[in-house]
Design brief:
The structure is a homodimer. By secondary structure, chain A is α+β, with helices and mostly antiparallel strands. The first copy, chain A, has a single domain, classed as Gcn5-related N-acetyltransferase (GNAT) (Aminopeptidase), CATH 3.40.630. In chain A, 30% of the residues lie in helices and 32% in strands. In chain A, strands 1-2-3-4-5-7-6 form a 7-stranded mixed β-sheet, sandwiched between helices. The model of chain A has no long low-confidence stretch (mean pLDDT 93). At the A-B interface, β6 and β7 of A face β6 and β7 of B.
């Protein structure tokens, strides 16, 4: 990465469907740290578009995209359930193209998501799971105040189907 | 409950859809301990039937029903994801009609689910969440070897929208 990045951060809209799928498929093949891997079935553009519509219209869900020009290079999602008793709990998911790792994009996206959560008026707890071997990510989350609630045994498997420890981390959100 | 129960335990089939919805709606109104409450939208019989088909055909999902004669009086589900990295993690959900509480039905259902998990060859970790105030359920799970991994702050809200502590409990499953 010698060139500069023309960084744009904004919420996803339905028209981002195809572009997003393209990037997600690349990320799935590049990293072993995500729950979704290259063995998982691809979804259709139409289904992705429909999902983006639902997220865009939801009060307690968001998908924020990072672009380099017109290319999607990373994303952060906050997913919350519609059920009343748990609709204040948002689960965070981050993915970034490998080519753009190490540039602070994770921090930028996480800051945006936490800001969105505080503004939402609904989200009062953010949580996420992260493989213990992904120490860089764990340190990033800690930098933003996330605390490890527990390390779950057998929280995932690696590429050779060995069990992995997985951190459950959370951050309480209070409107400012 | 003065009469005897004509107890039948078996896996759910698609034809149970209507009967199951009837019981689940009643349970939702009776208890404050479930994530799903009376405010959540009802689903259609056709959708329920479709879900039961998927569960029945799945290798890492199951729904076991308890009947008193022809009436569904309780259920236990093990829900696992299809994604390769986490397909060995089964989440337990139990619900029982109030009229049938205190009769040991929870133990019977839990024993069936753990047996099914061991036989599945896929499930290697069972987990569940349970409100801290539901001490009877927590003791039941502990009796079967589940351990509290953490108590999650703001894991749910009560009837007055106050935050509740929620236990995350798990049990490792090894084929015998």
């Amino acid at each position: 990465m010698s060139e500069e990045i023309n960084l744009i951060i904004r919420q996803a809209i339905p028209d981002d469907a195809e572009n997003l799928l393209y990037t997600l498929n690349q990320i799935r093949q590049e990293t072993d740290f995500l729950t979704m891997d290259e063995n998982d079935v691809n979804i259709s553009i139409e289904f992705q578009r429909h999902q983006l519509e639902n997220i865009y219209e939801s009060e307690n869900n968001v998908l924020i995209l990072a672009f380099d020009g017109e290319k999607i290079i990373g994303s952060i999602s906050v997913h919350a359930n519609s059920q009343h008793r748990i609709k204040h709990i948002g689960e965070i998911g981050i993915s970034i193209l490998k080519e753009y790792w190490g540039l602070g994009l994770g921090s930028i996206l996480l800051e945006e998501a936490i800001y969105w959560a505080k503004e939402s008026g609904i989200i009062r707890r953010l949580e996420l799971t992260v493989q213990k071997r992904n120490q860089k990510a764990i340190h990033l989350y800690e930098k933003f105040g996330f605390q490890t609630e527990t390390i779950m045994q057998r929280g995932a498997v690696d590429e050779q189907d060995n069990f992995l420890d997985v951190h459950l981390m959370s951050l309480l959100i209070d409107p400012e």
